[in-house]
Fold Dehydrogenase.
Amino acid sequence: MARPMATVLITGATGGIGTDIASRLVAEGKNVYVTGRSQQKLNNLIDQLNPMKTRDDQIIGQFQFDIGWLTDIKREMPQICKVPFDTVIFNAGIMFPKTPRSANEDDLPWMEDTLKTNIVGHFLMARHLLAEQKQSIRFVCLSSVTAKFPLRWMRWKTSPSEFHHFFARSNYFTDGWTSYIDSKLAAIVMAQWLNKQDNKSAVAVHPGVATTAIVLSIPENQRKILSPLSRFQKNDGTNVCANNVINAALSPDDFTNTWICHDTVAIPRLSEVQKNSFMDFLHELTKDFM
């Protein structure tokens, strides 16, 4: 039997996989709330979704904020927490930010933007939801097959203080690949932690491969280098990827390893010390934004 799904929150829903997830769920009669940075893009999405509604009392809601700005999340979460979600899909993500935030206007000026957006912002949202909502919630954290890259998880740290330097902006320079890989590995660790919370379940999922804004953000010279690999990796398209995410949300299984991948890969072998230290680091990092 599939898990119940009536009211869903989707982050980063104004394009790519997120838009396709929202479209399918609205067409199936779910109450759907979407988030995004751009108010205009949110308005356009709501205009696109409204004709798909199947019942008069169906709700399509929106929350406008930047998930890479923790002050934005702190401001918005009281309103978000008023909605009794049974499913939360952490979809928002970036890889090569076009306009890095300047240090004087950023919440955490020392931290790399991709990590802040892909993992820290989602964790802060989860903390608020865990504190305010006692009903059963299924969390779906979008990860990536890149998380299995061994040279990254072998370098993960074993104390919270070490993660502060490891995730620093200066440690990544302009390399979007390593920060993206670390953020997707972190999504698996966060899902494992969420899966242990009372009356909550979570899964991390590699949805498949699609040409999204993240792919298009890769510098052109690097895309040319990667293009021969397309012969070996099928492009599933955003619709197929969206269906894979929804299927992960609906699955009745708890997934002991909280990791679904639509390719055959092993879950990264982080030690319990590494995982616990990382979660302690996230708690310390976000405590002032609760």
The radius of gyration is 18 Å.
